[in-house]
Amino acid sequence: MAGPLDGVRVLDMTSNFMGPYASLLLADMGADVVKVEPPEGDTTRGVGPCRSQGMGAIFLHLNRNKRSLVLDLKHADGAATLRRMLRHADVLIYSLRPQAMARLGLDYDTVAAINPRLVYCGAFGFGQNGPYAQHPAYDDLIQAGVGLPVAQARGAGEPTYVATAVADRVVGMALSNAVSMALYRREKTGRGQAVEVPMFETFAHFVMGDHLYGRSFEPPIGDWGYARMLAPERRPFATRDGHIGVQVYTDRHWQRFFAQIGRPALMDDPRYATIHARTQNIGTLYALLAEVFAARGSDEWLALLQAADIPAIRMNTPATLLDDPHMQAVGFFGTQQHPSEGRLRTIGIAQRWSEDAPEIRLPAPLLGQDTREVLGAYGFAPAEVQALVAAGAARARDPAPTQPSSATASGAAPRRSTATTTRRPA
């Protein structure tokens, strides 16, 4: 199956984490995503362990189902090539600041004149009508800017970043949603539009939905911060032989839990009788839970809690998650024979679709692997492509010989996409 976005052509001018994560989500849904890379390649090609230069672990997971086109946009012919390609594209996503796009002749007014149906979507650090508009932005900076490390400090003791690129990935999801919604709008109106997805504001929305809290009211009726989430005691509970995650939350959960530990009268304690009261006394309540859970082993607790329909799970590490019985049963992690990198572990596509099911079609590309193929699909004659390569405006690399694949992630082996490469410009 081709996926729900089959036939949608995306030119992806993003790098690092945020934009490539957005285009990954679009590519997994079947869009033909062309990764427009500078001659040196996306910076994440060098991040993490690798078997060959430019194919680091982070890049491999962020860039499957995409094709790599190398254009030197600082070269006049390289920028002109991209503008010509825009005639036949559905979406352009970029993470450069708008001023840089304008210098390349890729500002929205110019692009809309080329293709008024184009969805033109930018994700960059800050909204352009504020004083930070020109500032660069990365995940750590945005986490700091919205105050997330200070919230983390309530439990960790000092400001600390979340141990994943949470701002990049949250904003990347917002970017992919914006593209999909703009495409839907185009289906109704026939017109494209420009959409901006600023990191700072988007991630602030994500964080402050929890932590504006008492300052949601004017005048404030309390301080910022969702008390339960900020409680220092809010962490996986240590058992006699490991750790488990437990979410005792509703009144019914607490009634069953207090009964399980032989202290049903606690439900009548005014500190714990309602969700509001429990939130105000969450520290003492979590301290009680920590003491109780330490008395038995993880298996015993999981059996008791599941029997009482109280949400609980064994704590994994990123390594043990690979062997988690649920993940194995749903086939979330699979393997794939990459043409140049050998056998790789893949991360599956979480959604299940009754029709047009998405799949892993292509492994992450070598730098410039698809330059000739992509330019040909966008209407460039072989002689034109060769002239661009000779002038240094484009760079091409022949793909490594395809090896037999044994991919099992999402139940699909990687394959070369045919739906997009055979479609010629109108």
Would you kindly provide a brief summary of this structure?
This protein has 17 helices and twelve strands.
Structural description of this entry:
This protein is an alpha/beta fold. The strands form three sheets. The chain has a seven-stranded mixed β-sheet, with helices on both faces. The protein has helices spanning 18-28, 57-62, 76-85, 98-103, 108-114, 139-145, 148-156, 166-189, 199-211, 227-230, 251-260, 275-280, 282-293, 298-307, 325-330, 371-377, 382-391; strands at 9-13, 32-37, 66-71, 91-94, 119-122, 193-196, 237-238, 243-246, 312-314, 333-338, 342-347, 394-395. Helix 1 (18-28) packs across helix 8 (166-189) and helix 8 (166-189) packs across helix 9 (199-211). The longest helix has 24 residues, at 166-189.
Notable features of this structure?
426 residues; alpha/beta; Rossmann fold; formyl-coa transferase, domain 3; 2 domains; 3-stranded antiparallel beta sheet; 17 helices; 12 strands; 37% helix; disordered C terminus
Whole-angstrom Rg: 25 Å
CATH topology annotation of the largest domain: Rossmann fold
Strand content: 5-15%
How far apart are the first and last residues' alpha carbons, in Å?
Answer: 25 Å
- What spatial form do the alpha-carbon principal axes imply? elongated
Question: Secondary-structure map with pairings?
Answer:
Elements: E1 9-13, H1 18-28, E2 32-37, H2 57-62, E3 66-71, H3 76-85, E4 91-94, H4 98-103, H5 108-114, E5 119-122, H6 139-145, H7 148-156, H8 166-189, E6 193-196, H9 199-211, H10 227-230, E7 237-238, E8 243-246, H11 251-260, H12 275-280, H13 282-293, H14 298-307, E9 312-314, H15 325-330, E10 333-338, E11 342-347, H16 371-377, H17 382-391, E12 394-395
Parallel strand pairs: 1-2, 1-4, 2-3, 4-5, 5-6
Antiparallel strand pairs: 3-12, 7-8, 8-9, 10-11
Helix pairs in contact: 1-8, 8-9
